[in-house]
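Weekly sync notes, structure subgroup
Attendees: PM, AL, DS (notes)

Item 1: joint prediction request from the bench team. They want all two components modeled as one assembly rather than separately. Inputs as received:
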Amino acid sequence: MTTMNDLQRSAIVATLVKDCRARNGFCGETMVQKSVFVMQELLKVPLGFDFQLYIYGPFSFELQHHLGSMMADDMIALQPTEYGATFEAGEQIAYLETHTPKTIAAHRNAVEFVVRHLAGRGVKQLERVATALYFTVTTDDTSVEGRSKKIREVKPHITADEAQKAVEEVDRWRKELAA
Amino acid sequence: MELAGRVFDIITDERNRHPDVQDILPDRETLLAWRKTVRLAALFHDLGHLPFSHAAEEQLLPDGKHHEWLTVEVLRSVEMRDVLKQMMPAPDPDQVAKIAIGPEKWGKWFGKATDLKEWDLLMTEIVTGDAFGVDRIDYLLRDSHHAGVAYGRFDHYRLIDTLRILRHPTLDRPMIGIEKGGIHAAEALQLARHFMFLQLYYHHVRLAYDIHLSEFMMQWLKTYPTDVEGHLCMTDNEVLSAIAIAAADPAAPGHDAARRIACRGHFRKVYERNALDQRLRADAVECIAKALRERFGDSAVRDRLIPPKQQNVEFPILLDDGSISTSRSESTIYAGFKAAAVGVVFIDPEKKKDAMKWLADNKKTILSQQMELGV
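Output from the run, pasted for the record:
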């Protein structure tokens, strides 16, 4: 599958924001970052963003810049709330839905998957599970212990129990997708 | 460098420390060493700039590298290491480099973004931060002064006086924030940056000269000297001198671009990104440029697309009662702020009249063509 162009990437991100808002009402940048990472690395949606480990786990500066472009084009907008700023669908989401219906339809299940599993989680919870996925896809050690240890090496504030549960959750997702 | 020292002094002053972040501040001796590192990082931050700053760096530097890559190369040079070694205590060149270029660029070319820990991130915020980085405080004030425009000014004295290290209420990490009383100075900085970009840095005539300058430099230099000595020898003066020579010699490499710069024969704006056309097509600027190229030829058309610079302007604000809120909650300016994108299509001045007429007659058709997208 070839990597998406910018318009197709925008369509998937805007759909994610729209669905997330419809479900629980809050979709901050951390939620978008981690959801896109899960879609790309676990669900193989060819978004093509370059991720690296950062403050709250996998983070893409390229995606951060892309979100800025989407805001400039009114595809998404920021709405302040008492919990911080949330993204919401912008006026131009209709444009994306009109011009990229096949892209949205092809990856609708992936968007639903991440919204179902990640929406409503706080920054720290998202950090744990996204970091667990990061080490699941980037290391050869497939054991729960090995991946939990790697999480703790880069994120010492995450407890051993939290790290293990995060890795086990990622494994459950993989089983769910394989079934 | 001076501004970096001022910000450092204000945010680490014992009287300005918020109880939530007391534990992250190092002891006095370590703080003094950090003060030096931060000031040096601010001083060296732009050492890697090519002549005329950003004008041709994307075209001339290899593999998508930017000037920050050269900044670190200079900082790691034998000569610079010798200079730093003579200081007491001697700062680590790589530590200075990390603070000077920030986690994104460091992670891209030299290590990992996570090499910068909590305190390092605070220190690099002083230099490179989107909200209060001294780099932008300095260039906005300096450029507005030298360009003779007033809209780049803001009350940086008040702004710096009210900066504090605060724990962000939802992100739960220390960041550089501000006391409520400084919010209007902070908003003025944000607006100053917005206006300076739209009216000065991205002015269409300046963008046209950027295009001619980068074309000249590519034809004149072929490749940019990325070794430290070669880079440091290449200044604006060398380029200006080469432009003067090439403009007078039709056989010289880069003659056409040099002539356009020296004799004000720059390409003229024929189309500019606008909201109405963007609603018809998200790639309106590219479509118009393509159509003009097909009609008037590649050599007569240039285009420049600049995506909005995403800025992290979500920062904590210390309220009068001691509680902490955020910029987007407390300020309508920050809540509604949206960085602007720029897109301009240029045409050879000799063809401007024809191009304007042709575009007026054909724009609607060009923008109504359907896009073919795969999945």
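Discussion: Chain B is about 55% helix and 10% strand.
Action: AL to compare against the crosslinking data before next sync.
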